[in-house]
Amino acid sequence: MKFRHLGRSGLKISEIVYGNWLTHGSQVENDTATACVRAALDAGITSFDTADVYANTVAEQVLGDALRGQRRESLEIFTKVYWPTGPKGPNDTGLSRKHIMESINGSLKRLGTDYVDLYQAHRYDHDTPLEETMQAFADVVRQGKALYIGVSEWTADQIRAGHALARDLGVQLISSQPQYSMLWRVIEGEVVPTCAELGVSQIVWSPVAQGVLTGKYAPGQPLPEGSRATDDKGGANMIKRFMDDAVLERVQRLRPIADDLGLSMAQLAVAWVLQNDNVAGAIIGASRPEQVAENVAASGVTLDAGVLAAIDDVLGDAVQSDPGLTAKNAPAGRVV
Asked: Is residue 304 helix, strand or coil?
């Protein structure tokens, strides 16, 4: 396992991060989830990402239970706040001071820890003044409940504004957590250059495009039983943007490239995002322990310029790169 600094901070994280969105407390049983976490630890992963909204707080509890007994100082635990949780009342969502302060306490209790290494704004809250949000995050850090702060799916302008306020408040905003893969490159035009300038790193989610880049979805063929595309708890909705026969056909043409490198399709996809110098970590999920071992093998893989060019040629116009899609896919107002 290789490790990278998160932003300009002194914190290092494993470049493969284990995440439990859409799995723990939802798609897989708790025993299997625990086995996946143990497989991640055995493979050298030290960084774990979750959020209070995953399975409506249950995923944090499952992760906390799975990590119980591990040396806390040897782990980097990340969680997030914004989306509705609990009974979903008017203050059970967003980035108000009230919701942030109550949410961090709930997350720490469920995770079974006194602090998280990284506390992230899961989306931008247009209904709360940014000054209020950043002051609340700064207070969470000063209370010792989080060591660093980050954001997820914020635009370049939002990151710049949040970073400036955090600096003025004396706390470190060091990370951005966007979707990023061979097929979804919308952060490359604006978010990555802005973050590189500010000393903020990316911790990217969905590096295998919800499983599409594994090659298991063949154009014109029935969906594999039990796959993400058949999951009616949220997975099918997230993957649908890639479930186009023209896209799937191009993905299948990546297989010879992976074979020539001695990599699986999933390993090629994870290795690809890690070639970006602004990416500190790639979040992987798993519904089986063996998936963890496969994805971890992407750590340390170098793809030369010829391979990267070949990938671009194969995918062509199947790639989404419009930077405006970050804002377009974000909520325009607080979700209740």
From this structure: coil
